[in-house]
Amino acid sequence: MTSPLPSLHLAMLLALWQKLPPDPTDPEVQRNIAITQPLLWLIP
Fold first, then answer.
1. 10: domain range?
2. Does any domain span residue 18?
3. pLDDT digits (tens, 9 = 90+) for 1-44
């Protein structure tokens, strides 16, 4: 099923993403962040 207004849907997702905290607070997520975000290993 496709959305009749895909740009509106993307705008809503972007607005939601911008409201989320930038750093995870859950210790398990913090422990696994390097595994799930391998590009972080390359940035000094």
1. 6-41
2. yes
3. 565 667 778 888 889 889 988 888 899 888 887 777 777 777 66
